[in-house]
Design brief:
- This protein is of the alpha/beta class.
- The chain has three domains: 4-277, Rossmann fold (3-Layer(aba) Sandwich); 299-366 and 378-539, Alpha/Beta hydrolase fold, catalytic domain (Rossmann fold, 3-Layer(aba) Sandwich); 561-644, no CATH class.
- Helices cover 28% and strands 23% of the residues.
- It contains 19 helices and 23 strands.
- Strands 2-1-3-4-6-5-7-8-9-10-11 form an eleven-stranded mixed β-sheet, sandwiched between helices.
- Helix 5 crosses helix 6 and helix 13 (454-466) packs parallel to helix 14 (484-496).
- It is globular.
């Protein structure tokens, strides 16, 4: 078989091979440069022709079908320094097609691994762009020249499956089918996918919900509306909530022994099984959409539950303001907030995220900028938004796996302002309120917050007089909406008026502290203490299947002053100090090592952390390193004492 490097320009059909490039035994592998039909002039006016690298692999000159594998936004696929003829430049090694590459080829299929265009915007938006569709069309034409009579199947994993679906909707007549693996179909639910009912399509996806980034409801809905064959993959064990790593069930490792035969059966028009993987489907998280009556019509609520039957205590998270450019408005994408929700799922809570009117598929118009920054009634905006939240609570009371006698209301920004107001209402089952960066700002969007926001302080004074449940406040000092002075004074005003609020004011955060809710490692321990005091979860006769467990607590400067004393660090260089400050925000277990000669440092944290890994990270910079800190303690007090003398 011919092996080498092939440059192909589909407009002319020219192709030539360069010798000397090794390929796998028995596999014809060629790295082809395809010239796209477009130029880069639309983006940067350079007018340069856009090119796309494609790696073709086959073991026969007439394959059964060609899987054109679109590039993904994950993994190592953008590594331009990867060795020649290495398809993992475009597809991460832990993705299902990469893992099963040899078996796919030996089954008689050809693989065409498409790389990134020389001029393209990347990310979920970029892969669905008109320019990307032109590039895919050019690659398809080139593949047709190579194998004119062979069926071509547009194939993608995760974000690559988004690109495949978008291309099928716009130019599907140029392919013979679509194979979507672990698709991330969120924005696509608003597309007219019914138009694809004539397209041969197979969708293979995980059912465990372990990786909360991926979503099951959209996969099921789109597959049903488009008439796709949907093949769920079951896992026979409870996984780790929020695990999207290379060992995650999201990447379908449990289907490896069945994947290639099933793809072959599907291509030949044979019946496929009703599932892959385990015969017992065990879920890590279950996700569904509940539609209730809201103040402006139908309102959608995303509901996630942990393993077990429940009924579960309920953590209801309310989103911040949503402007017209947000995907939840522009594409009707469903709001989920999995980063915050994962902590509460781990503690045995059900997580409910209502979409207020105009957001996602909730009917109505979202009021974003119709509130005065010097409102004479500082609680007006929160009262207005609370109507939708109250409707969501009532709409969920019929869900049998929920225990709304144990309700924790939470929200961020406008959502936090809303639940702050709702602490004054007599809501059956409400135990407490968790407010992330929520209040009323009194400055324009392009201005800095005023030193003292009287409207917010006055509003919290009024709410404190009527507060009926405990409140926890989580803010950061560099919040773009409120100054630290306003935050402290508002909390004090709430308490002085009769409320009961605990303030966690975190130090300055990277970028905007208004979004500190997306950094759960900083607030999880304090929030756990607050929640456990509300007698929720396993303090109730309705104990969740996964009992609440206190997370490993992060130290603070107040509780562990020696740990935070930077003068003790043997290495006083800025790089090491910055690295150590990063270490202090990492989850436990964690380890920090320093060079024994006053230079070099490194750390290890998380599930597989170890002292050896921290030392190894340090030794990338210096020959000899020793442990310095473990979890919340200094492990070499003699060394640190010597360093300060």
């Amino acid at each position: 078989m011919r092996r080498g490097f092939c440059v192909a320009v589909y407009l002319t059909g020219l192709c030539f091979a360069l010798p000397g490039v090794a390929a796998a035994q028995g596999v014809d592998t060629q790295d082809v440069v395809v010239q796209s039909s477009r130029t880069s002039g639309r983006a940067d006016k350079s007018g340069e022709k856009v090119t796309v690298n494609v790696i073709y692999e086959s073991v026969t000159s007439t394959p059964k079908a060609v899987l054109l594998v679109l590039p993904s936004t994950s993994g190592t696929n953008k590594d331009t320094n990867a060795p020649a003829l290495n398809f993992n430049r475009y597809e991460p090694a832990y993705y299902p097609l990469s893992r099963n590459r040899d078996a796919l080829l030996q089954s008689g299929l050809a693989l065409a691994w498409m790389g990134w265009p020389s001029q393209s915007q990347f990310g979920k938006d970029g892969t669905a762009s008109y320019e990307m569709q032109e590039d895919i069309s050019s690659v398809i034409k080139n593949a047709r020249l190579r194998w004119p009579a062979v069926p071509l199947i547009l194939t993608g994993t995760f974000a690559g499956a988004n690109t495949a679906l978008t291309f099928a909707l716009k130019r599907g007549e140029s392919v013979n089918g679509m194979l979507a693996l672990s698709p991330y179909w969120m924005r696509e639910r608003g597309e007219k996918v019914e138009s694809l009912k004539g397209l041969k399509a197979l969708v293979i996806h995980d059912t465990s919900g372990e990786c909360m980034v991926a979503t099951g409801p959209e996969v099921g809905e789109i597959s049903a509306r488009a008439g796709f064959v949907r093949l769920p993959v079951n896992v026979g064990r409870v996984g780790q909530i929020g695990n999207c790593g290379d060992k995650s069930a999201q990447w379908l490792p449990q289907a490896d022994s069945q994947l290639v035969p099933v793809i072959g059966q599907w291509l030949e028009g044979q019946a496929v099984p009703d599932h892959l993987g385990s015969d017992v489907a065990v879920v890590t998280t279950t996700e569904r959409v509940v539609v209730v009556n809201g103040p402006s019509g139908k309102m959608e609520i995303t509901l996630q539950t942990p393993p077990g039957k429940g009924p579960f205590p309920v953590f209801m998270f309310n989103h911040g303001d949503v402007d017209g450019e947000h995907a939840a408005i522009q594409y009707k994408e469903r709001l989920r907030e999995t980063l915050v929700g994962s902590a509460f799922l781990t503690w045995g809570f059900a997580v409910a995220v209502p979409a207020r009117p105009g957001v996602g598929r909730s009917e109505g118009i979202y009021r974003y900028s119709q509130y005065a920054i010097n409102d004479g009634d500082p609680t007006y905006k929160a009262r207005h938004h609370s109507e939708a939240v109250l409707a969501a609570i009532e709409g969920l009371r019929g869900e049998k796996d929920l225990n709304l006698d144990q309700l924790l209301l939470a929200g961020q920004s406008a959502g936090g302002d809303t639940v702050m107001y709702m602490s004054t209402l007599a809501i059956p089952g409400l135990r407490g309120v968790l407010n992330f960066s929520g209040g009323r700002s009194n400055h324009a969007w392009n201005q800095s917050p005023k030193f003292e926001n009287g409207m917010m302080i006055d509003g919290w004074t009024e709410m404190g007089k009527k507060a009926k449940v405990p409140v926890m406040l989580v803010f950061a000092e560099n919040d773009s909406r409120y100054s630290p002075n306003t935050i402290r004074k508002s909390a004090q005003a709430f308490n002085d008026a009769g409320g009961k609020a605990e303030l966690l004011l975190l130090p300055v955060q990277p970028e905007d502290g208004h979004f500190v809710y997306h950094r759960p490692l900083l607030w999880t321990s304090a929030v756990w203490r607050f929640v456990s005091g509300l007698r929720m979860g396993n303090a109730s006769p309705f104990a969740p299947a996964s009992p609440l467990a206190e997370p490993l607590a992060l130290a603070t400067e107040a509780t562990h002053p020696d740990l935070f004393d930077l003068s003790r660090l043997p290495n006083k260089g800025k790089g090491c100090i910055d690295l150590y400050q990063q270490f202090l925000t990492k989850m436990l277990p964690r380890y920090f090592a320093v060079g024994s000669e006053g230079r070099g440092c490194g750390y290890s944290f998380g599930k597989d952390a170890s002292e050896e890994k921290a030392v190894a990270a340090c030794q990338k910079h210096v020959e000899r390193c020793i442990p310095y800190a473990k979890d919340n303690e200094l492990v070499k007090p003699a060394l640190t004492a010597a360093a300060t003398n």
